Amino acid sequence: MSDALEQSVTAHYQRSGLTGDILAGLEQQGIDLDAIKPQDLAAVDEFHIGGREATLIALELFEADKDSHVLDIGCGIGGAARCLATERECRVTGIDLTPAYIEVADLLTQRMGLADRCHFEVASALSLPFEDDTFDAAFSFHVAMNIDDRIGFLREAARVLRPDAPLCLFDVMKGPTSGMRYPVPWAETADTSVLKTRDESITLLDDAGFIVSEEENLRDFALDFFEKLFARAEQSDGPPPLGLHLLTGGNAREKFSNIRQALIDHQVEPVILVAHPRL
What we know:
Largest sheet: 7 strands, mixed
Strand order of the largest sheet: 3-2-1-4-5-7-6
CATH superfamily: Vaccinia Virus protein VP39
Distance between the termini: 27 Å
CATH topology: Rossmann fold
Oligomer: single chain
Shape: globular
Number of domains: 1
């Protein structure tokens, strides 16, 4: 990823006052800020299609236990990392380009009593600040869509993984129909959107030294997810105190409408791939 693209991507996700907005949303719902539970954050915590439910689907496809140290590449505000740390009792290190996300991830993790299991820092997926063979597994959810140097991204992941450690990718990929309207949640315009097809993604993994072992296409799941999301929105007088609109900005409805339509038209499909380094 060029420096200019990284700067554009960071600007896209950076939100002024995000920490305060999330805490205010929790307070509006009567939640004790010193005893936050995962379900309290469900509406905002995981910035990918399907949220927590999709995270749990992905986590079932790769192994991690209480002795594992797992890397979350593009961790956002830390929801998936905290989910994994809670479900598997393992340690998770998360990195993200967006300083506001890391600030929120640190604060929420401390308030949830998970600081001993989860650590977060600002870093690039193309230059991971870790030694070779550090992690027992890695995952990256809805991150590669903003990375043009996909082979560099995958090779960096391979570098920091121990031999035979799994890499789980959950990305929006190109479907069989061309075209898509912008903005969408990960990009205001096509300039910062770098989508690959499922076949291209598998070829890139192979070129980076990985072998795909698990695959799950979540298009039907995603269509159902957005149908329910828009049904709830139609029954509401406005945005809820806590929701993904806090992460996506003032044009959140347009972004989600466009990705929903792209799914209906089969211009995109959300796919989970799990791969292991080739020995």
